[in-house]
């Protein structure tokens, strides 16, 4: 346990941040997994629908400061390319 008052407060705030960040990171991962699952099942309409949801969730995580913008762009690009393979479009 910390001895200083400011260190105690910092411990409380960092725990809140950890839980908040974990919630959003898990939400992003689950959204991406759902897109990839639809791609594995060759279900193009479902993959398109889940892609839009996943991109929205990832963008919200960036706005909230949980994820870096470049990381979000990389993840969105990866899942978009996977969905494009269902339509037979080249990268």
What attributes does this structure have?
single chain; 91 residues; Methane Monooxygenase Hydroxylase, Chain G, domain 1; 3 helices; elongated
Overview of the molecule:
The chain has a single domain (5-86), classed as Up-down Bundle (Methane Monooxygenase Hydroxylase, Chain G, domain 1). It has 3 helices and no strands. The chain has helices at residues 5-40, 44-63, 69-86. α1 packs antiparallel against α2, α1 packs parallel to α3 (69-86) and α2 packs antiparallel against α3 (69-86).
Name of the CATH homologous superfamily:
Ribosomal protein S20
- Counting H and I runs of at least 4 residues, what is the number of helices? 3
Main pleated sheet: none
What number of structural domains do the residues give?
1
Low-confidence stretches: none
Ends apart, CA distance between termini: 53 Å
- Just give the CATH class: Mainly Alpha
Class from secondary-structure proportions: mainly alpha
SSE topology string: HHH
Percent range for β-strand residues: under 5%
What helical percentage do the residues reach? over 70%
Question: What form results from the Cα inertia axes?
Answer: elongated
Per DSSP E runs of 2 or more residues, the count of β-strands stands at 0
Report the CATH topology name. Answer: Methane Monooxygenase Hydroxylase, Chain G, domain 1
Multimer state: single chain
Average pLDDT value? 95
Radius of gyration: 18 Å
Please state the second-level CATH architecture: Up-down Bundle
């Amino acid at each position: 346990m910390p001895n200083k008052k400011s260190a105690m407060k910092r411990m409380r705030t960092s725990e809140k941040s950890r839980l908040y960040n974990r919630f959003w990171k898990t939400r992003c991962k689950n959204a991406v997994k759902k897109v990839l699952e639809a791609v594995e099942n060759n279900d193009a309409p479902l993959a398109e629908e889940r892609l839009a949801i996943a991109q929205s969730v990832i963008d919200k995580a960036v706005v909230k400061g949980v994820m870096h913008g470049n990381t979000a762009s990389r993840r969105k690009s990866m899942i978009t390319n996977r969905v494009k393979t269902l339509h037979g479009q080249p990268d």
